[in-house]
Write a structure and sequence with these properties.
- Helix content is 8%, strand content 46%.
- The protein has 2 helices and 10 strands, in the order H-E-E-E-E-H-E-E-E-E-E-E.
- Strands 1, 2, 3, 4, 5, 6, 7, 8, 9 and 10 form a 10-stranded antiparallel β-sheet that branches.
- Strand 5 and strand 6 form a beta hairpin.
Length: 160
């Protein structure tokens, strides 16, 4: 079982992708190399911010709508239950998420972290995040299929 101390710190986003369960298709809604970070405090708080790499400054109402659609940001208290990471959201860019508990499944491999959602309702994709501990060397991105130690077929990849 992973201790909170092993997750504590800042993780740099390597990739974020969605998998359509019915056909195995992988999508990268924020592109190949989306910028982002997740952070776990040792006292049980989680922060996440992910964006697309091609965000534009907001000049019009349309730009504002596009900017909101190219951002995921939330925070809350987290707990570990076996291989489950449960976050009780208390602040979010999407007000509908506030008060919900987000259940994710994680795998920690040294300085690499993979976080995956359970499959959504039929015809909806499962989401996977991969991260690496900040300050460590980045590996290949998700879905690269290169055999280079990169994350494969996971929507969100981070490294510390």
């Amino acid at each position: 079982m992973v201790a909170i101390a092993e997750l504590a710190g800042t993780w740099h986003l390597l990739s974020w992708s969605l998998e359509i369960i019915e056909n195995g298709e992988h999508l990268q809604p924020f592109g190949d190399n989306p910028p982002g970070y997740i952070h776990f405090t040792s006292d049980g708080r989680f922060f996440a911010i992910l964006t697309t790499a091609d965000r534009k400054p907001v000049e019009t109402e349309f730009d504002q709508i596009a900017a909101f659609g190219s951002l995921i940001a939330y925070t809350g208290r987290y707990r570990i239950e076996g291989n489950r990471l449960v976050t009780k959201v208390d602040v979010s860019a999407d007000p509908a998420a506030v008060g919900t508990e987000l259940v994710r499944f994680y795998k920690l491999m040294g300085d690499r972290l993979e976080i995956k959602t359970a499959p959504f309702v039929s015809k909806s994709p499962a989401s996977v995040l991969a991260a690496g501990k900040s300050g460590a060397t980045c590996f290949g991105s998700a879905g690269s299929g290169s055999g280079d130690g990169g994350l494969h077929c996971f929507p969100y990849a981070c490294q510390l």
